[in-house]
Structures are given as C-alpha cells and as structure tokens.
Amino acid sequence: MADEMWNEIQNLVLGRDDPEILIPHSAYAAAITRNRLSLIARPLNPSVQNFQTVISSLPRSWGLASQVHGRVLDGTFIQFLFQSEVDLISVQRREPWIFNNWFVAVQRWEDFPSLDFLTTIDLWVQIRGIPLPYVSDETVVLIAERLGEIVTVDFHEATTTQIACIRVRIRFGITDCLRFFRRIRFRSGETAMIRFQYERLRRICSNCYRMTHHRIQCPFLQRIPINRVNPAISERLDQNRVVQNDELNRDDINSQSHISDTSFPAPRSQPPRVETPPLNPEEIAAASPYFPEFKAENVQHFAVPIPKRVSSIRVQSSNCSNVTPFNDHESTAKEIKNAGIGQTSKFEVGESSKHPRSEIAKDKERKQKQKIQEYKDGGIQIPPKKR
Length: 387
Known about the structure:
The chain is α+β, with helices and mostly antiparallel strands. Helix content is 31%, strand content 16%.
C-alpha cells in the first residue's frame, strides 16, 4: 500500500510545469545595493567555531557591534552587512581575524562569485635568517614567492629601520600546507636556513600543518583497519594509549597517594628460595639456661627449630583484679633476678653484719622470696574494691 502511494506521489506534477513568476528589478535592487556593502566570512574549522557565536563576537572585535548585522547563509558562509564603506575597508585592512583560536577567512561580496571565491586567506609572514650581505628586495621576493602569491612586501632598503625580520603579506589557499623552514643557497656558495613565522597563527593540524582541522580529524592521517591490526601491534597501541591517559590525568607524578599494590608490575619469574641454615649447637647450648625443658643433646634430632609453647599459670582473678597472669618464662626470669639480688644482699650482710640496716635488708629478702612462692602457688587474689 505504501509503495503504491509513493509511486503516485512521484507521478504528480507538483507545480513544476506551472508558468514562471516574474520578479521586477525594483524588488531586489535595494538588496543588491545592500549586499555590495557586506563581507562574506568563512570559519575555517566549523567543528569548533559556532556560527551564531561568530556573528555576535566578530563585530565586537571590530568595534562595530551596533553598526554591523550578521546572518548565516548556509553551513559554510556568514554575511556581515555594514552601514558605511569606511568601516568595511577598515575591517579588511586588519585581516586576518581569529575566533576560538582558528582563522576566519573574509572576502568582500561579489554579485557573481567565481569558483575560487573565498578559498584563500591573506597572512602576514615574517622572514627571518637572511644573511646581512644578501638582504635586498629581490632576495625577499624570491623567497616569498615559494610560499604563495605576494600581496604586499613591507620592506624598502632606503626606509626600513630593522631587517631582523622582513614582513610579507602572502595569499595562501585555505587548504595549503604551511611551511616553517626553508634552506636557501646563494651563488657565492653560502647556505642559510630561513625561518617563517606566521602572525596571529594559533592552531594548526600537527600532522599535515593545515589550518582547517585538528589532528584527530586529519583526513591525511593513516588509520589502520581494525580487522587488519596485528595483535602485538594492537596491544602496544593500547599500552601507549593507557600511558598517555595516565600522564594527562595524573595530578602529581611524585605523589605517594597514587602508589598502590598494582602500581608495580609483578616479576616475570619468582626469586630463588634460600634454604634454611642448619642449627648451631653452640648457640642452643648458650640459650639452654633460659629453656629448662630443652636439652642441648637433643639438637641433632631437629632439622628446623620448633618453638615450644610455654604453659601459662592460671591466675584466679575477679573482674576488678589488679594482678595480671605470669608465665613460666617471666617467673623464671624474676627468680634469677631476685636470686642475684638476694646473693648480693647476703654478701653485703656477711661482710658488714653490724650495719644498722642489715635487718631491713633481710626483711626485704624474705618478702621477695614470699612473693615468688605465692606466684608459684597460684598468685594472689585481691578482693574487689568496695564502692
């Protein structure tokens, strides 16, 4: 049903064979006059240059916000209507114009535009590096002709006050590839490297050096089909992409906050394991006084040292008890310490039995032995404090 209806619509005349409508010259004479006092602008990178924003921004840059009216013609051109010839010529002399860091080509209205209408842009170029003995009008012209059509040469041997850089206005095609260096040779055999510096140039494609697009949109960039990519090349490209993203997103490369367990790659092979060293009988024999249950002659029966659990002494304590349980190792160490103290006290008492504090020393020794015996028997249970 839909196909039949579509065929019927195609067979309709739809007014194509109707008589023509005649428009007199008086109806559009005013429009022709008004259009002749206008400029046609062409943003060279429309992907980042919004046309409505260009219409509102460029007249402010010219200082004619209230005297210029802009309108979009199509997806490529913008028309700016001026009120006076003086303002239009003033804007033309101050070319080129920039919006959002990209050039905007401007050309005056033509009633019957040619095929190359608004396909060029005039740029001022500074030529640097010409050796002093060879600076002349002809030398500058011969060098500038290699770049494009010469519009104006801002150099005269009799009036120019500086020759470090010579300004030349050259007409470039909007799709031309810009050059920044050129080697020249003189008839005398001397060579020099000439540098070209473009005034007001902000951004260009870093792949083809054109003024109409970014590198990511460059049509001359070779792209490898996905189905033809070698797995090894694909993996390497992915790694490079990850590294670039890390460099862009890293706030501080030296910050320790970025270090994690996955920051360092795992080793390709495990490190060699070191065998357990054999036991030293002399060290075991020297440590045997601190381990009464371990005998030095049993050293040969063990391949690796096995730690022995020390049975702890249970201490009966209430919730409010201030006494902490002691194990055998701690009690043994205290016995040795207290024994040393006791022997020293006895030695001092034997030599000086007539000392007035001998009884006090004996009393302290007796109390210490009593405490040791109490700990061995199970400790002291202190009754809870009354509240």
